[in-house]
Design goal:
about 700 residues; alpha+beta; 4-stranded antiparallel β-sheet; about 65% helix; Sensor_HK_TwoCompSys; transmembrane helix; HATPase_C_sf
C-alpha cells in the first residue's frame, strides 16, 4: 500500500499550519484573543490535522475517492484558518498592525465560513463518493447552493453589517486599523442585512436534504454497506453526546466540543470507508448509546441532588460556602446511593454481566438446589439469559442413549448460533443464542470470558447429569447381567448337569444290582456311566470357560492369546503377539477384558480384513497405570460409511466397563487398528501356583 501524493501534500500543509498556529499562539495573551473573539490557538488546527489524516488514509486505499480528497482539502483549510486567526491576533498586538493582518482577517473571518460546506458534502458523498441520482440530485444541488449562500455573502458584505448581524458589540478596536472589506459590494445596509438573515436561515434548512439522503441510503444498505452506514450513525450519536456534554461546561469549551466532534466524524468516516470491519460497529454503537444514556442520567441526577442540597442549607451562607458544604454532604450521603443506582440501571439495561462473581456464585448456588437434570439445565439457561439480557437461551445436551435433551428459556427466534459445550475435549452439548442479538446483548471481550466460564460450569453440570445417567444405566445393566448370568447357570445346571448326574447315579445303582449275577453287564453299565461323566466334564469345562478362560490361569494372558490366535489363524495369515512390561500380576477383570478384546479383534481380522499379517501388542504403562491392547492388521481397512457392528460395540463396552476406552481407526499404512486402554489400578496379590493347580487339575479340566 503506497501513500497518496495529494493526500500527503495536504496533510503536510495541515501540519505546518498547526505548528505555525501553536508557535504564534504562544506569543499572544489569551485576553487579547478574547477581546478579538478568537478561539484558543491549537485545537482547531489539530482538528484540521486529524481531518487531513483521515483524508490521506482514504486516498491511500482509494486514490480517487472524492471523500478522501474532500477531507484532505478541508483538513488543510481548517488548519490554515486557525493559523490565520493566530496571525491576526499577533499582528494586532502591534501598533501599527504587522503586515498580513488584513489578509489573515479575510481568510479567517470571511473565507472560513466556507468550512460550513464540509458537513453536507460528507453526508451526500458518503460512503461511495457518489451524489444521489435522479431528481434527488437536483434537490441536493439546491441544498448545497443554500449552504453556500452564507459563505458567499460574507465575502462581500461590509464588516459593520456582518458584526451587527452576528453580535451586538461593535468591531473590536484593534481591528479598526485593518482593511476589513477588500471585496466590499456597495449595497444598501437593509439589503445586506436581509441577505445575511436569509443566508443564516438557509443553513439548517439546507441540511434537511443531506439527512434524508443518508436515511434513504441506510435503509437500502445491506452487508458491508450497512456496516459503513452504521459508522456514520455512530459518529452522529457520539457527536450528539459530546455536544450535550459540552453544554454542561463553561462557554469556553464550546469550540473544543466542535473540534472533538470533527475528529470523531473524520475518524469514523475514514474507518467506514477503509476498514468497516475493524471493530464490531453494532456493539460499539449499542455500547455508545447505553453508556451515553447512563452518563446523561447520572449527570442529571447529580445536578438535581447537588442543587437540592445547596437549597436546603439555607440562605444564610454565601454561594461558595453552600457549594462546598453541598459537595461534602453529597460525597458522604449520596455517594453510596449513586453507586447502587448506577449498578441497578446497568443491570436493568445490560444484565448482570458487570458482576461476574455474582453470576458465577449465583449459578453454583442454584445448581446445588436443582434436583434433576432438566432443572439444572433450565437453571443454566435462565442464568445466561439474565446475565446477558438475552431474549432466548437454549441448552442442548446429548444423553447417554444418543437422544438430545433441549431446555429453552424464552421464545426461540428464527435463527440461532450454537456454542459448543465441551468437557475434557469431548463435545457433550451446545449453548444456543439468538443469531441477531440486540445491541445491548452484544458481547465484549470480558463478556466472552464470562460466557466461557459459564459454559465450563455448564459442561461440569451436563457432565454430572450424564454421569448420573450412566451410573444409573450401569447399575441397571449390572443387575440385569447378574440376573441373566444366574438364570443361564441355573438353566445349564438344572437342565443339563442335573438330569445327567441323575442318569449316572441310576446307572451306578443298576451296576451294583447286576454286579453279583453278571459282572460283564455291570462293567458295561459302568462304562456307559464313565462316558456320561466325560460328557458332563466337557460341559463343566464349557461353563467354566464362559466364566473365565482357563488358559489365563494355565499359561497366562499372553499365552492364552497365542493359543486363541493359533485356533483362529486362517491360511495365509501370520499372527504375532508381543508383550512389553510385566504382565504377571494383572487384575483378573483386566486379564479377561484384554483376552476378550484381543479375541474379538482377531476374529474380525480373520473374517473381514483379508490381511496377511496381524500384530497384537500388550503394553503395561506403569506411570499411567493402564494396559494397552493394540491389534493392527494390513488388510483392506475401514471403508467409508462403515457402521459399527455388534463386535465393535462389544469392544467398546468391555473397555468402558472397567473405566477404559477403545477406538477403532484406520492404520497409517492401510488396514485397521484397534486400540484399547484398560486401567489397572493397584497391583493385585500374586496367585499361588498350588492353588491354581488345585482348581484345575483336581477336576481334570
Amino acid at each position: 500500500m503506497r501513500l497518496n501524493v495529494a493526500g500527503l501534500a495536504f496533510l503536510v500543509v495541515a501540519m505546518a499550519a498547526a505548528v505555525a498556529a501553536a508557535l504564534i499562539g504562544l506569543r499572544v495573551p489569551q485576553a487579547h484573543r478574547v477581546l478579538l473573539d478568537l478561539p484558543p490557538a491549537g485545537p482547531d488546527a489539530m482538528a484540521g490535522v486529524a481531518l487531513a489524516t483521515a483524508g490521506a488514509a482514504v486516498l491511500t486505499r482509494h486514490a480517487r475517492h472524492p471523500l478522501g480528497r474532500l477531507m484532505a482539502v478541508f483538513g488543510a483549510w481548517w488548519a490554515v484558518d486557525d493559523a490565520a486567526a493566530s496571525w491576526l491576533a499577533y499582528a494586532t498586538l502591534h501598533h501599527p498592525a504587522l503586515p498580513g493582518g488584513s489578509a489573515a482577517f479575510f481568510v479567517y473571518q470571511r473565507l472560513g465560513a466556507g468550512l460550513l460546506l464540509l458537513l453536507p458534502l460528507v453526508l451526500l458523498l458518503y460512503p461511495d463518493g457518489k451524489m444521489p441520482t435522479g431528481w434527488w440530485r437536483g434537490v441536493t444541488l439546491v441544498s448545497l447552493a443554500l449552504t453556500s449562500l452564507l459563505p458567499l455573502a460574507l465575502v462581500a458584505v461590509p464588516s459593520a453589517i456582518a458584526q451587527a448581524t452576528s453580535d451586538s458589540r461593535p468591531i473590536p478596536a484593534p481591528l479598526t486599523a485593518l482593511d476589513l472589506d477588500p471585496l466590499y459590494v456597495p449595497l444598501p445596509d437593509a439589503v445586506w442585512s436581509g441577505v445575511l438573515l436569509v443566508a443564516q436561515l438557509c443553513i439548517p434548512l439546507s441540511l434537511l436534504a443531506p439527512f434524508v439522503v443518508v436515511v434513504r441510503r441506510y435503509r437500502r444498505s445491506a452487508g458491508v454497506g450497512r456496516a459503513r452506514m452504521r459508522w456514520l450513525l455512530w459518529a452522529a450519536v457520539a457527536d450528539l453526546l459530546v455536544m450535550l456534554t459540552i453544554r454542561l461546561l463553561p462557554n469556553d469549551f464550546g469550540t473544543a466540543g466542535l473540534d472533538i466532534a470533527l475528529v470523531l466524524t473524520a475518524g469514523s468516516v475514514a474507518v467506514g470507508i477503509v476498514r468497516p470491519d475493524l471493530v464490531d460497529i453494532d456493539r460499539l454503537l449499542g455500547g455508545t448509546v447505553v453508556y451515553g444514556a447512563l452518563l446523561a442520567l447520572t449527570l442529571l441526577l447529580d445536578l438535581l441532588v447537588l442543587g437540592g442540597a445547596g437549597r436546603l442549607l439555607g440562605p444564610r451562607l454565601n454561594e461558595g460556602e453552600r457549594l462546598v458544604i453541598a459537595v461534602f454532604a453529597v460525597a458522604i450521603l449520596y455517594a453510596q446511593l449513586r453507586h447502587r443506582l448506577w449498578r441497578l440501571v446497568r443491570r436493568w439495561v445490560v444484565g448482570e454481566r458487570d458482576d461476574p462473581y455474582r453470576v458465577m456464585s449465583g449459578l453454583a448456588e442454584r445448581l446445588e438446589r436443582a434436583d434433576d437434570s432438566g432443572t439444572q439445565l433450565l437453571t443454566l439457561a435462565r442464568t445466561v439469559a439474565r446475565a446477558f439480557r438475552s431474549p432466548y437461551v437454549g441448552v442442548e445436551i446429548t444423553q447417554v442413549s444418543g437422544e438430545r435433551l433441549l431446555v429453552e428459556d424464552g421464545e426461540r427466534p428464527a435463527g440461532t448460533r450454537a456454542l459448543p459445550i465441551t468437557y475434557r475435549g469431548e463435545e457433550i452439548g451446545r449453548l444456543l443464542l439468538p443469531r441477531q442479538a440486540p445491541s445491548r446483548t452484544r458481547l465484549s471481550s470480558n463478556d466472552e470470558r464470562l460466557l466461557a466460564d459459564l459454559i465450563r460450569q455448564a459442561a461440569a453440570a451436563a457432565r454430572a447429569v450424564r454421569l448420573a445417567e450412566e451410573l444409573q444405566g450401569g447399575r441397571e445393566r449390572l443387575v440385569a447381567a447378574v440376573e441373566d448370568e444366574r438364570r443361564r447357570l441355573r438353566r445349564e445346571l438344572h437342565d443339563g448337569l442335573g438330569p445327567a448326574l441323575a442318569a449316572v447315579a441310576s446307572r451306578v445303582d443298576t451296576a451294583r444290582i447286576t454286579a453279583r449275577r453278571s459282572p460283564e453287564e455291570a462293567d458295561r453299565i459302568l462304562g456307559l456311566a464313565r462316558q456320561e461323566l466325560t460328557g458332563m466334564l466337557t460341559e463343566v469345562r464349557r461353563l467354566v470357560h464362559g466364566l473365565r478362560p482357563p488358559a489365563l490361569d494355565d499359561v497366562g494372558l499372553v499365552g492364552a492369546i497365542r493359543q486363541q490366535a493359533e485356533r483362529l489363524r486362517a491360511p495365509g495369515l501370520a499372527v504375532r503377539v508381543e508383550e512389553y512390561g510385566d504382565l504377571s500380576d494383572l487384575p483378573a477383570a483386566v486379564e479377561v477384558a484384554a483376552y476378550r478384546i484381543a479375541s474379538e479383534a482377531l476374529t474380525n481380522v480373520v473374517r473381514h480384513a483379508r490381511a496377511g499379517e496381524c500384530v497384537i501388542t500388550l503394553t503395561r504403562d506403569g506411570e499411567a497405570g493402564c494396559l494397552d491392547v493394540v491389534t493392527t492388521d494390513d488388510g483392506v481397512g475401514l471403508g467409508d460409511g462403515v457402521v459399527s457392528g455388534v463386535g465393535l460395540v462389544s469392544l467398546r463396552e468391555r473397555a468402558a466397563e472397567l473405566g477404559g476406552s477403545c477406538s477403532v481407526t484406520s492404520a497409517g499404512s492401510g488396514g485397521t487398528r484397534v486400540w484399547a486402554r484398560l486401567p489397572i489400578g493397584p497391583p493385585a496379590p500374586r496367585r499361588e501356583a498350588v492353588t491354581r493347580a488345585a482348581t484345575t487339575e483336581e477336576v481334570g479340566i
